[in-house]
Amino acid sequence: MVNPSTLLSISSFSLRKGVTLPDIPKSCSVFFGKTEIAFTIRPANRKTLAIHVFPDGSVVTDAPLDATEADVAEKVRRKGAWILKQKRLFASYPPVIPSRQYISGESLLYLGRHYRLKVHEGNSRSAKLIGAFLHVFHLPSDGTETVASLVQDWLRSRARSTFEMLLKKCVVQTAQIGIKDIPQWRMLHMRKRWGSCTKSGTILLNPELVAAPKDCIEYVILHELCHLKIRNHSPGYYRLLSQVAPDWEHLRTKLNRAVELRLDY
Predict the structure, then answer these.
(1) Which of the pair, 98 or 80, is modelled with greater confidence?
(2) DSSP secondary structure string, 201-255?
(3) Can you give the residue ranges of the YgjP-like metallopeptidase domain (predicted)?
(4) How are beta strands 8-14 and 48-53 bridged, if at all?
(5) pTM: predicted TM-score of the whole model, two decimal places
(6) Which of 5, 42, 95, 105 lies at a C-alpha separation of 20 to 30 Å from 119?
(7) What is the pLDDT of residues 131-170, one digit of tens each?
């Protein structure tokens, strides 16, 4: 999968000579089917047109100084399918936020709800969810690393039991497309993905996903289960996904708005 910090671009279009573009960037838009694609024309001292799609979803064209606005718009329209594919790809990545500090008062997201961390000194080490708080007990000689380990171990344990339960539920839904049994699966910390399906058919799930609401976790599991049938993200794949998760686009948006991927987890 492409790193979302990497610019996706193509630079293979040549434009005929015409009316010169203004020497400052200009915002424009064009329709690809019923979808409007907004883009910026950025005049450049070059002979070919380059179209860039950035991680924030913005589209920028570097256009030759002698290109016409109409020609640039037509090239963008012709590449509409490619542009929308890159936008969907970037939208599927979770945003990144700073590392946890593992101190009292810090917010902890679990199954779509916010809880507060309460750190206590005690005679033993443990972590327990009580009401709206995750209470973490550590020895007086312990440092922040121990508190971090206790929190991560608790989250990982909850993630495993939650994923096991939802996998059983999801294979009932995928039975209609021929996936009736739970495949081999395991948890893996991934910096850029919620889930993955290996070439051998093993499902990988990011433990950080336990922060998401259950319906969003189900979406990720269904997404990966469908890859057991179709490995790529072709139109055929999305038709298959729509059979088992008709509201997958809504759930993907909900997931990426509700949960953020942390650099340290």
Answers:
(1) 80
(2) S-EEE-GGGGGS-HHHHHHHHHHHHHTTT--S--HHHHHHHHHH-TTHHHHHHHH
(3) 47-257
(4) antiparallel
(5) 0.63
(6) 95
(7) 999 999 999 999 999 999 999 999 999 999 999 999 999 9
Domain locations along the chain: 8-91, 96-262
- 26 to each of 59, 96, 106, 217, how far by Cα in Å? 12, 30, 44, 41
Distance CA 140, CA 121 (A): 6
Locate 171 and state its tokens: 């294979």
pLDDT digits (tens, 9 = 90+) for 168-222: 999 999 999 999 999 999 999 887 789 999 999 999 999 999 999 999 999 999 9
CATH of domain 96-262: 3.30.2010.10
Q: Which two tokens stand for residue 240?
A: 């298959």
| CB distance 233 to 91 below 8 Å | no
Q: Which two tokens stand for residue 189?
A: 């910390």
| Residue 27 CB-density burial (10 A; 0-12 exposed, 13-18 middle, 19+ buried) | exposed
